Amino acid sequence: MSSQTGAVPHPQDILSALDADARAAFAKRLSALREGLAILPDKPEETPESALCALWALAGGTALSIHAAAQTPLRPLQPQQLDALDALLARRIGGEPTAYLTGRQRFMGLDLLASPDALIPRAESEMLGRIAVHKLQTLAANAAEPPVVIDVCCGSGNLALALAHAVPQARVHAADLSPAAIALARANTDQLGLQSRVTLHTGDLLAPFGDAFAHQVDLLVSLPPYISTSKMDTMPQEIVGHEPHLAFDGGPFGVRILMRLIREAPPLLRPGGWLGMEVGLGQGPAMVQLLDKHPAYDLVETVCDTDGAVRAVLARAAVPSAAA
Question: How many Å separate Cα 121 from the centre of its chain?
Fold first, then answer.
């Protein structure tokens, strides 16, 4: 299965409410952004235009994600608001992520709160999110009981909340080692009104889930750290200078958490349940090989990006032959 993500459309009428002076102010700042802004490829939603729209709205008193700002007509700014905009633009050009400036980021159609306490949800992670929704919908349709979901390394709660939103009958649990990330995930859960369907836990990977979850989990997903420790210092400053290292560092070879999930998930998964993990570039084939050889799994699937690189791996917990 292949998947791809696209950039945010930029509506032609976004400037329709601006007078000539405001349009000139917008054009001047857009020129500066085009010259000074370095945009990372893992944020396809951002362009100089979409970043300016989001920061323009913020300077005017409205915090919007880049996606939402691209769909909201801009309003004229007062002189002091233009000064505030210029300060925001200087911070953005200096490398501070737009999502941390606005405090908003969209993931799978949901506008979420964002802060330096957790990784900024990436569009590429929607590849795992979409297949996970499909798996969960199928499980929910064929199960007598509400399906149980666990999301570990949940960060801001983006994947867990997307699953709970898409499949209302699911009982979703999300965990992260960082108490600050869990606090942000709780704020997002409250904002979306999903408190009754999403339970948050603080702890190391699957440690929060004990005997009560043994062979009860239908879907276990993770967007884990998968960057090797040695590569951390070579990452763009916009990432390592602002986003939490805990959310990136996957150990000496980048696969420490991935391998732990493969080992530790089987006691929790019910027969026919699924493990789904996002993987880094180049890591997919090795993870598939490990899963193919592991006796606890009987089926392995992959999700590839438009270049054919494996970006998510899913494995089904073995179904006893008598029930297959």
Answer: 3
